[in-house]
Amino acid sequence: MFLVGLTGGIASGKSTVVSILRELGCAVIDADVIARQVVHSGTSAYVHIVQHFGNEILLENGELDREKLGAIIFNDPKKRHLLNSLVHPQIRRVMLKQTLWYFFLGYKYVILDIPLLFESRSMIRYMKSTVLVYCDPQTQLERLIRRNNISKQEAQKRIAAQLPLDSKLPLADYVIDNSGERETARRQVLQLHARLEASLGYLPVRVAAITVTTGLIVFAWTLLRRLWQ
Question: What confidence tens digit (pLDDT) does each residue in 201-216 have?
């Protein structure tokens, strides 16, 4: 099995690409979904976030107000770094568990959907390939304003908090241009899926796992024979 890092930018249409990959039966681990899970009320990450940011970031039901927290960190790089340091270790632990599960199920590759893959860079070394979901800057801005119902100025601030999509283009092994219609993106995803399925990148890990498993079986059998003698 090998890992494929999928990334993009805010409002680049990455969710559309992920939904198509899941329709194709691909194993996808969504870092955003996990990020929501690890900060539910009562978790260790939640407790530390409230300690550092205060009760004003909480909803009436006690859960985090993601919109309010987002507004804080998008306007303060230091606070954004602090939040990432509190949440990212928890996210990585859950991602590792899910990756191992897909490995035992026999998947050839697993797609890790990581929005800040190129910004943080800490996960890139584990990826055999990286995929960028791209859209042109104007489309990105319009999508974000429409999706979040925010002002143009606020949308520009949120986009500026990430690396520009154009600067990520040379960092990616594959690029899916999602500036247009869903069907256009779907054709590109199908081509990507075919390439990944045809890859033999999964063999080294699979062979290593078989070798280790075989060795353990032989050891256990030898030990049992001695005990029976």
Answer: 555 544 444 455 565 5
6, 112 contact by CB (below 8 A): yes
What is the tens place of the pLDDT at every residue in 74-102? 778 899 889 989 998 899 899 999 999 99
pTM, entire model: 0.79
SS3 sequence of the chain: CEEEEEECCCCCCHHHHHHHHHHCCCEEEEHHHHHHHCCCCCCHHHHHHHHHHCHHHECCCCCECHHHHHHHHHCCHHHHHHHHHHHHHHHHHHHHHHHHHHHHCCCCEEEEECCCHHHHCCCHHHCCEEEEEECCHHHHHHHHHHHHCCCHHHHHHHHHCCCCHHHHHHHCCEEEECCCCHHHHHHHHHHHHHHHHHCCCCHHHHHHHHHHHHHHHHHHHHHHHHHHC
Reference 144, options 129, 125, 127, 157; nearest CA is: 157
Cβ burial, residue 94 (10 Å; 0-12/13-18/19+): middle
Cα 181 from Cα 11, distance rounded (Å): 14
